[in-house]
Amino acid sequence: MTSQPTLTKPEEGPAGPSGPDTGLQAGLKNRHLSMIAIGGVIGAGLFVGSSSGIATAGPGILLSYALVGTLVVLVMRMLGEMSAANPTSGSFSAHADRALGPWAGFSIGWLYWFFWVVVLAVEATAGAKILEGWIPAVPQWGWALIVMVVLTATNLASVGSYGEFEFWFAGIKVVAIAAFIVVGGLAVFGVLPGVDSDRAGLGNLTEHGGFLPHGAGAVLTGVLLVVFSFMGSEIPTLAAGESEDPQRAVTKATNSIIWRIAVFYLGSIFVVVALLPWDSQSIVDQGSYVAALDSLGIPNAGEIMNFIVLTSVLSCLNSGLYTASRMAFSLGRRGDAPKAFARTTRRGVPQAAILSSVVFGFVAVFFNYKFPDTVFLFLLNSSGAVASSSGWPSASRSCGCGRSSRPRRRRSWSCGCGCTRI
């Protein structure tokens, strides 16, 4: 009988000058990983970018979210299977290294790291814009610096501090979007008083040009617009190597991905397109969620949404730094990056990997301020393209190639369907 792998042993790295190197430590509790899993699918892209998708596909944007959500479910099941059997900080990069060869692990790992260090600049800039609007005495670059320094200190302290911050960040997002769905749902079905019943209702799904006002092709265009809002859903599998019970936590996170996407994405977007006509100018001018809150008569809707978006931005920045540093750590352990990246402190923190990721994040922030329409735009577009075209496909391919070596294998339909869809 095949023996089961030891799942709770921390990853070891080479001894470092700062003292005994204990490797990564299992500092993430199950509640941390659960909230990381939930928060990973509720990004700022959902709140900010959904208005473009609605304007493009109308109510049919629900199909776009459903298509991408199905793909994410398949990919997460594949990653969950591999991460439960072999929990590692490198996630699909490490799995690709084992299943496809060192070339795959090297290229996928560095491309994924590049994506997240550019995201650090994007999120720091987005958060700085909101904070500057509240406290204009501090310039935007100053807020970006403050945000980066605070969250860097959090990640340098311990993996537990990262998990605790992410737990509360994700908690705020979950409460906010759940309240939005409940209140908005009551308004859609005519239960909430004070809402214009002639404007809000299920009729908005079929009126104003129909459910697909721009045709079925607009649904595929919508897929391209919404796919990036799902980036980050794979973080729980990357954090598996530092959780107390990797197999249980990862299995729970991957099995719950279906209801998380159904509730937080499809549920909230359904409320938006049912509350307002899809071609309402307020959706374009104010953003979909702010316009929906305004239609409910909620005062200071813009400021409320700014707070929620800021929370999402800080959550993404916090997770982005964690993800980039752990990918750099994994590359260092495999000899695909400087060995210093694989050294950890007494608290099990890959200090060099974190600081190197932050440095590149600051460089990207500089490019954003100096060359926003040229260099930074190129970095942003290229990072998004390589992340979406390498990470998920590699997970699918690695799952198919390495299934025979894993002691616990799920049904092959998920891997087969995932490979076909990707």
Keywords:
Amino acid/polyamine transporter I; 68% helix; 422 residues; mainly alpha
Characterise the protein shown here.
This protein is mainly α. The chain has a single domain, classed as Amino acid/polyamine transporter I, CATH 1.20.1740.10. Helix content is 68%, strand content 0%. The chain contains 17 helices and no strands. Helix 3 packs across helix 8, helix 3 crosses helix 16 (375-402) and helix 15 packs antiparallel against helix 16 (375-402). The longest helix is centred in the N-terminal third of the chain and has 33 residues, at 102-134. It is globular and about 65 Å long. Keywords: Amino-acid transport, Membrane, Transmembrane, Transmembrane helix, Transport. Its main location: membrane. GO terms for molecular function: gamma-aminobutyric acid transmembrane transporter activity; secondary active transmembrane transporter activity. This is Amino acid permease. Belongs to the amino acid-polyamine-organocation (APC) superfamily. Amino acid transporter (AAT) (TC 2.A.3.1) family.
Give a nutshell description of this structure:
This is Amino acid permease. With 422 residues, this protein is mostly helical.
Structural class by secondary-structure content = mainly alpha
Mean pLDDT: 78
Biggest sheet layout:
none
Order of helices and strands: HHHHHHHHHHHHHHHHH
* Rg, alpha carbons: 22 Å
Distance between the termini: 35 Å
At the fourth level of CATH, the homologous superfamily is Amino acid/polyamine transporter I
| Shape by Cα distribution | globular
Q: What is the CATH T-level topology?
A: Amino acid/polyamine transporter I
Tally of DSSP β-strands? 0
Q: Enumerate how many helices there are, as a single number.
A: 17
Helical fraction: 55-70%
Query: Which CATH C-level class is it?
Result: Mainly Alpha
Uncertain stretches: 1-22, 400-422
Strand content: under 5%
Our count of domains comes out at 1
Architecture (CATH level 2) name: Up-down Bundle
